[in-house]
Design brief:
- By secondary structure, the protein is mainly beta.
- It is 11% helix and 46% strand.
- It has six helices and 23 strands.
- A 14-stranded antiparallel β-barrel has the order 2-3-4-7-8-11-12-15-16-19-20-21-22-23.
- Strand 19 and strand 20 form a beta hairpin.
Length: 407
């Protein structure tokens, strides 16, 4: 098996968070201050697909509406100032490790009237090519693992400042090619999910003789069924609560500056701490289930998992606070033509330890808008180093205006 094959299979399991055993559950001696990452499948749903938010530390819940709002907060579409738009984004993923993993995103919206907007998207994640061999090194076939999500959303304005939105999602994850894992035949996983969101804006606030627009956003994303790759185990999908604020300062006729902050909390159960004996072996009850020392049983329904995710961490409130991810972003526009962006993303060291800076630019060219983002990890030799994103937006309103002028 070549290095690329081995690396590809390792990445396949590592970055999809599939767990087929309890060997990495938190033992007694590692209860306090230890690594205890949350377990879920299809993490590609949590990757920022577009370059604008990707350049602002993956913040996008409360920023001004744009064509990519469906991923962050579909209710923002109700306040978008265009009639229709389409965007396509492309991200080579983990390019420092392999060269054939990528994320592609196609999204668009259409305004029905002053209050209502519909939108849709396709998110596609390809994990390259995997070659399967048995323990003797014999070739057993190959597979191109991939995952995708298809979205449809409806957004409605309820007042001049408040809107709401819902999105529905079909998820398919085909990453094992039917291989036997842990003695069980695997299959493609399927799930359905929904988002519930709201958006509030308060424009025209006077601050130090400057005009500022304030906005707040909330999106509970991926509320959906568990996904399974075998007949023996079901995995949670990344149900997430996103909260965000944005402050957009209109400095003068030509310049504007926006600050934004997002908080993200996964609404999935935290793995508990299990009791072990003096030899380090698991302690089980009369039913053969492992005895929980601290925390709560993670094998619960989706609604119960969402509720208990706020109080089930083995180390209590301190660990619950560690599960919150922070995104900070900054965006500067000159004449609404050229943009410069930067940001920072922070995840606690015991909950994944992703910490990185981001930067990017945007340029509006009449009908088209082009955006670019670049990721800079805090640590050297990080798998996400040199991650870049490209986004191209087509403005149908500008296109129609140009066609009318030509006629």
């Amino acid at each position: 098996m070549t290095r690329k094959m081995v690396l590809g299979l390792v990445l396949l399991l590592l970055f999809t968070n599939i767990t087929f055993s309890q060997s990495d559950d938190l033992p007694t001696e590692r209860l306090i201050g230890s690594e205890n990452t949350l377990k879920y499948s299809v993490p590609f749903l949590t990757i920022a697909p577009d370059s604008r938010s990707g350049a602002m530390g993956d913040a996008g819940v409360a920023i001004s509406p744009d064509v990519n709002s469906l991923h962050w907060n579909p209710s923002k579409y109700a306040f978008i100032d265009k009639d229709m738009g389409v965007s396509v984004s492309y991200t080579p993923w983990l390019k420092n490790l392999v060269d054939d993993i990528h994320l592609a995103y196609l999204t668009g919206y259409k305004r029905l009237d002053r209050q209502q907007v519909i939108s849709g998207s396709l998110l596609y994640f390809s994990l390259g090519n995997i070659i399967f061999r048995n323990e003797f090194g014999d070739y057993e076939g190959q597979h191109t693992p991939n995952e995708f999500a298809i979205d449809a959303a409806y957004s409605r304005r309820f007042s001049d400042r408040f809107s709401g939105g819902v999105a529905f999602r079909y998820i398919r994850s085909d990453i094992t090619g039917g291989a036997y894992i842990g003695g069980s035949e695997s299959k493609a996983g399927n799930s359905v999910a929904a988002d519930v969101s709201m958006y509030y804006q308060y424009p025209g606030i006077s601050v130090l003789d400057k005009e500022m627009d304030f906005s707040f956003g909330l999106n509970i994303r991926n509320i959906g069924s568990k996904i399974s790759y075998t007949t023996e185990k079901e995995n949670f999908i990344p149900t997430t609560m996103k909260l965000g604020t944005a402050f957009d300062f209109h400095l003068d006729e030509y310049n504007s500056l926006m600050f934004t902050t997002d908080l993200n909390k996964l609404l999935v159960p935290t793995p508990p701490a299990y009791e072990v004996d003096e030899l380090g072996n698991p302690v089980t009850d009369e039913n053969g289930d492992r005895v929980i020392l601290s925390g709560m049983n993670p094998n619960v329904s989706v609604p119960q998992g969402m509720i208990q995710s706020f109080y089930d961490a083995p180390n209590g409130l301190e660990e619950e606070l560690h599960e919150i991810k922070y995104s900070f972003g900054l965006e500067y526009w000159y004449q609404n033509v050229f943009a410069v962006r930067s940001g920072y993303f922070h995840e606690h060291q015991n909950k994944g330890n992703r910490k990185y800076f981001t930067m990017g630019m945007g340029l509006k060219l009449n009908v088209f808008q082009a955006d670019f983002a670049y990721l800079i990890p805090r640590y050297q030799n990080h798998p996400l180093a040199n991650t870049i994103r490209f986004t191209l937006v087509l403005d149908f309103a500008a296109l129609s205006k140009d066609q009318q002028q030509e006629d």
